[in-house]
Amino acid sequence: MFTTKRWWENKTLKLAFLGLILGGAWTVKETNGELLMELYQSLISPLTTLQSSNPTENRIRDASVMELQTRIVELQTQNQRLQKLLGYVEKGGASNRPVVARVVGRSADHWWQQVTVNRGAKVGIKPGFVVKAEGGLVGLVQTVTPHTSRVLLISDATSQVGVTISRTAAKGILRGDYSGEGVLEFYEKVPNIKVGDLVSTSTYSRKFPPGEPVGKIKSLDLKKLPAPLAKVELFPPIRYLDWVTIYPHVPEKLEEIPNKIKD
Q: Model-level pTM greater than 0.85?
Protein backbone atom coordinates (compact mmCIF):
# COMPACT_ATOMS: atom_id res chain seq x y z
CA MET A 1 0.00 0.00 0.00
CA PHE A 2 2.84 2.34 0.93
CA THR A 3 4.66 1.51 -2.32
CA THR A 4 1.59 2.31 -4.41
CA LYS A 5 1.14 5.65 -2.66
CA ARG A 6 4.82 6.54 -3.18
CA TRP A 7 4.54 5.68 -6.88
CA TRP A 8 1.43 7.83 -7.30
CA GLU A 9 3.09 10.85 -5.60
CA ASN A 10 6.10 10.61 -7.94
CA LYS A 11 3.86 10.44 -10.98
CA THR A 12 1.83 13.41 -9.73
CA LEU A 13 4.99 15.54 -9.36
CA LYS A 14 6.20 14.60 -12.83
CA LEU A 15 2.80 15.38 -14.36
CA ALA A 16 2.69 18.75 -12.59
CA PHE A 17 6.21 19.62 -13.77
CA LEU A 18 5.32 18.57 -17.32
CA GLY A 19 2.19 20.70 -17.18
CA LEU A 20 4.24 23.68 -16.02
CA ILE A 21 6.63 23.28 -18.95
CA LEU A 22 3.78 22.94 -21.45
CA GLY A 23 2.02 25.96 -19.96
CA GLY A 24 5.19 28.03 -20.17
CA ALA A 25 5.75 27.01 -23.78
CA TRP A 26 2.18 27.94 -24.67
CA THR A 27 2.59 31.32 -22.93
CA VAL A 28 5.78 32.09 -24.87
CA LYS A 29 4.07 31.15 -28.12
CA GLU A 30 0.97 33.24 -27.46
CA THR A 31 2.83 36.34 -26.22
CA ASN A 32 5.81 36.10 -28.61
CA GLY A 33 8.15 35.95 -25.61
CA GLU A 34 6.98 39.27 -24.18
CA LEU A 35 6.37 37.76 -20.75
CA LEU A 36 9.90 36.40 -20.54
CA MET A 37 11.32 39.71 -21.77
CA GLU A 38 9.40 41.57 -19.06
CA LEU A 39 10.70 39.12 -16.47
CA TYR A 40 14.28 39.63 -17.76
CA GLN A 41 13.91 43.42 -17.69
CA SER A 42 12.58 43.31 -14.13
CA LEU A 43 15.61 41.29 -13.06
CA ILE A 44 18.28 43.51 -14.66
CA SER A 45 16.55 46.82 -13.98
CA PRO A 46 18.08 47.25 -10.50
CA LEU A 47 21.54 46.55 -11.92
CA THR A 48 21.07 49.08 -14.73
CA THR A 49 19.84 51.69 -12.30
CA LEU A 50 22.78 51.05 -10.02
CA GLN A 51 25.25 51.38 -12.90
CA SER A 52 23.74 54.59 -14.31
CA SER A 53 23.51 56.13 -10.85
CA ASN A 54 27.30 56.03 -10.36
CA PRO A 55 28.55 59.31 -11.91
CA THR A 56 32.12 58.75 -10.71
CA GLU A 57 32.48 55.56 -12.73
CA ASN A 58 30.89 57.27 -15.73
CA ARG A 59 33.38 60.14 -15.54
CA ILE A 60 36.29 57.73 -15.26
CA ARG A 61 35.03 55.78 -18.26
CA ASP A 62 34.49 58.97 -20.30
CA ALA A 63 37.96 60.23 -19.36
CA SER A 64 39.50 56.95 -20.49
CA VAL A 65 37.70 57.18 -23.82
CA MET A 66 38.88 60.77 -24.31
CA GLU A 67 42.45 59.77 -23.49
CA LEU A 68 42.37 57.00 -26.08
CA GLN A 69 40.88 59.34 -28.69
CA THR A 70 43.59 61.91 -27.98
CA ARG A 71 46.32 59.30 -28.35
CA ILE A 72 44.85 58.19 -31.68
CA VAL A 73 44.77 61.77 -32.99
CA GLU A 74 48.37 62.32 -31.87
CA LEU A 75 49.52 59.13 -33.59
CA GLN A 76 47.69 60.12 -36.77
CA THR A 77 49.32 63.56 -36.70
CA GLN A 78 52.80 62.10 -36.20
CA ASN A 79 52.16 59.62 -39.00
CA GLN A 80 51.19 62.42 -41.39
CA ARG A 81 54.32 64.39 -40.51
CA LEU A 82 56.53 61.36 -41.03
CA GLN A 83 54.90 60.60 -44.36
CA LYS A 84 55.61 64.15 -45.56
CA LEU A 85 59.20 63.95 -44.38
CA LEU A 86 59.73 60.55 -45.97
CA GLY A 87 58.16 61.81 -49.18
CA TYR A 88 60.70 64.62 -49.23
CA VAL A 89 63.53 62.14 -48.57
CA GLU A 90 62.49 60.03 -51.55
CA LYS A 91 62.94 63.05 -53.83
CA GLY A 92 66.65 63.29 -52.98
CA GLY A 93 69.33 61.41 -54.84
CA ALA A 94 70.90 58.32 -53.32
CA SER A 95 74.12 60.21 -52.55
CA ASN A 96 72.34 63.29 -51.24
CA ARG A 97 69.50 61.76 -49.26
CA PRO A 98 68.41 63.63 -46.12
CA VAL A 99 68.29 62.05 -42.68
CA VAL A 100 65.05 62.19 -40.70
CA ALA A 101 65.63 63.16 -37.06
CA ARG A 102 63.59 64.04 -34.01
CA VAL A 103 64.10 66.95 -31.64
CA VAL A 104 65.16 65.48 -28.29
CA GLY A 105 66.57 68.51 -26.49
CA ARG A 106 65.62 72.16 -26.14
CA SER A 107 66.51 74.60 -23.38
CA ALA A 108 63.89 77.02 -22.11
CA ASP A 109 66.63 79.64 -21.87
CA HIS A 110 67.59 79.15 -25.53
CA TRP A 111 64.24 78.13 -26.99
CA TRP A 112 64.58 80.20 -30.16
CA GLN A 113 68.31 79.68 -30.54
CA GLN A 114 69.04 75.98 -30.84
CA VAL A 115 67.72 72.42 -30.59
CA THR A 116 69.31 68.99 -30.26
CA VAL A 117 68.24 66.13 -32.55
CA ASN A 118 68.76 62.39 -32.21
CA ARG A 119 71.00 61.80 -35.24
CA GLY A 120 74.71 62.47 -35.48
CA ALA A 121 78.04 61.45 -36.97
CA LYS A 122 77.11 57.75 -36.96
CA VAL A 123 74.71 58.40 -39.84
CA GLY A 124 77.03 60.82 -41.64
CA ILE A 125 75.81 64.18 -40.34
CA LYS A 126 78.42 66.94 -40.25
CA PRO A 127 78.55 70.60 -39.19
CA GLY A 128 77.16 72.80 -41.93
CA PHE A 129 74.38 70.43 -42.96
CA VAL A 130 71.06 72.16 -43.63
CA VAL A 131 67.99 71.44 -41.49
CA LYS A 132 64.38 71.71 -42.65
CA ALA A 133 60.95 70.97 -41.26
CA GLU A 134 57.43 71.02 -42.62
CA GLY A 135 57.11 74.52 -44.08
CA GLY A 136 60.70 75.21 -45.03
CA LEU A 137 64.10 76.14 -43.66
CA VAL A 138 64.82 75.64 -39.95
CA GLY A 139 68.54 76.09 -39.43
CA LEU A 140 72.06 74.75 -39.70
CA VAL A 141 73.92 71.94 -37.93
CA GLN A 142 76.54 73.48 -35.63
CA THR A 143 78.12 70.58 -33.79
CA VAL A 144 77.74 66.80 -33.81
CA THR A 145 78.39 63.84 -31.54
CA PRO A 146 78.15 60.20 -32.63
CA HIS A 147 74.41 60.13 -31.92
CA THR A 148 73.19 63.75 -31.70
CA SER A 149 73.46 67.07 -33.52
CA ARG A 150 73.00 70.63 -32.30
CA VAL A 151 71.10 72.89 -34.69
CA LEU A 152 71.35 76.70 -34.83
CA LEU A 153 67.85 77.95 -35.65
CA ILE A 154 67.13 80.75 -38.12
CA SER A 155 65.15 82.40 -35.30
CA ASP A 156 68.43 83.06 -33.46
CA ALA A 157 69.59 86.67 -33.68
CA THR A 158 73.10 85.54 -34.68
CA SER A 159 71.72 83.57 -37.62
CA GLN A 160 71.99 85.31 -41.00
CA VAL A 161 70.30 83.98 -44.11
CA GLY A 162 70.58 85.47 -47.58
CA VAL A 163 67.03 85.71 -48.91
CA THR A 164 65.09 87.02 -51.88
CA ILE A 165 61.52 88.16 -52.53
CA SER A 166 60.01 85.66 -54.96
CA ARG A 167 57.80 88.22 -56.72
CA THR A 168 60.42 90.90 -57.46
CA ALA A 169 63.80 89.28 -56.73
CA ALA A 170 64.60 91.98 -54.14
CA LYS A 171 67.32 90.63 -51.87
CA GLY A 172 68.51 91.08 -48.32
CA ILE A 173 69.70 89.47 -45.09
CA LEU A 174 67.28 87.77 -42.70
CA ARG A 175 68.16 87.67 -39.00
CA GLY A 176 66.34 85.92 -36.21
CA ASP A 177 64.27 87.82 -33.66
CA TYR A 178 64.00 85.14 -30.93
CA SER A 179 60.44 84.45 -32.01
CA GLY A 180 58.43 82.98 -34.85
CA GLU A 181 59.40 86.00 -36.92
CA GLY A 182 62.58 87.36 -38.47
CA VAL A 183 63.93 90.79 -39.43
CA LEU A 184 64.80 91.31 -43.09
CA GLU A 185 67.24 94.09 -44.04
CA PHE A 186 67.25 94.89 -47.75
CA TYR A 187 70.23 95.73 -49.93
CA GLU A 188 68.28 98.33 -51.93
CA LYS A 189 67.26 101.70 -50.56
CA VAL A 190 63.81 101.46 -52.17
CA PRO A 191 63.00 97.76 -52.63
CA ASN A 192 59.92 96.67 -54.56
CA ILE A 193 58.10 94.75 -51.83
CA LYS A 194 54.70 94.56 -50.16
CA VAL A 195 53.03 92.77 -47.29
CA GLY A 196 52.33 89.15 -48.18
CA ASP A 197 55.35 88.72 -50.49
CA LEU A 198 56.97 85.30 -50.20
CA VAL A 199 60.55 84.99 -48.95
CA SER A 200 63.03 82.25 -49.89
CA THR A 201 66.78 81.69 -49.74
CA SER A 202 68.75 83.53 -52.43
CA THR A 203 71.68 82.77 -54.70
CA TYR A 204 73.75 85.09 -52.49
CA SER A 205 73.57 82.59 -49.65
CA ARG A 206 76.73 80.71 -48.80
CA LYS A 207 75.23 78.46 -46.12
CA PHE A 208 71.94 77.45 -47.71
CA PRO A 209 70.79 76.27 -51.15
CA PRO A 210 68.73 78.84 -53.11
CA GLY A 211 64.96 78.67 -53.40
CA GLU A 212 64.18 77.21 -49.98
CA PRO A 213 60.91 78.58 -48.49
CA VAL A 214 61.44 80.74 -45.40
CA GLY A 215 58.32 82.85 -44.79
CA LYS A 216 56.30 85.84 -45.93
CA ILE A 217 56.41 89.60 -45.37
CA LYS A 218 54.26 90.57 -42.38
CA SER A 219 55.03 94.29 -42.04
CA LEU A 220 57.30 96.97 -43.56
CA ASP A 221 59.40 99.90 -42.37
CA LEU A 222 60.68 101.47 -45.59
CA LYS A 223 61.91 104.59 -43.79
CA LYS A 224 64.25 102.68 -41.51
CA LEU A 225 67.93 103.72 -41.73
CA PRO A 226 70.44 102.75 -42.94
CA ALA A 227 68.26 100.29 -44.90
CA PRO A 228 64.57 99.40 -45.17
CA LEU A 229 63.38 96.62 -42.86
CA ALA A 230 60.58 94.07 -42.97
CA LYS A 231 59.13 91.67 -40.44
CA VAL A 232 58.98 88.14 -41.84
CA GLU A 233 56.58 85.50 -40.53
CA LEU A 234 58.55 82.24 -40.63
CA PHE A 235 56.80 79.28 -42.27
CA PRO A 236 58.30 76.38 -40.26
CA PRO A 237 56.69 75.76 -36.84
CA ILE A 238 59.90 76.58 -34.97
CA ARG A 239 58.09 77.07 -31.67
CA TYR A 240 56.83 73.47 -31.76
CA LEU A 241 59.55 71.62 -33.67
CA ASP A 242 59.27 67.84 -33.48
CA TRP A 243 60.59 66.10 -36.62
CA VAL A 244 63.15 67.57 -39.03
CA THR A 245 65.19 66.54 -42.06
CA ILE A 246 68.94 67.06 -42.27
CA TYR A 247 70.84 66.95 -45.53
CA PRO A 248 74.29 67.85 -46.85
CA HIS A 249 74.78 71.03 -48.82
CA VAL A 250 77.73 71.80 -51.06
CA PRO A 251 77.94 75.58 -51.60
CA GLU A 252 77.78 76.62 -55.22
CA LYS A 253 79.57 79.57 -56.82
CA LEU A 254 78.19 82.77 -55.35
CA GLU A 255 76.85 85.76 -57.16
CA GLU A 256 78.50 89.03 -56.19
CA ILE A 257 76.76 90.67 -53.25
CA PRO A 258 76.61 94.46 -53.59
CA ASN A 259 78.40 96.09 -50.66
CA LYS A 260 77.25 93.43 -48.21
CA ILE A 261 78.95 90.72 -46.23
CA LYS A 262 78.02 87.26 -47.43
CA ASP A 263 76.05 85.20 -44.95
A: no
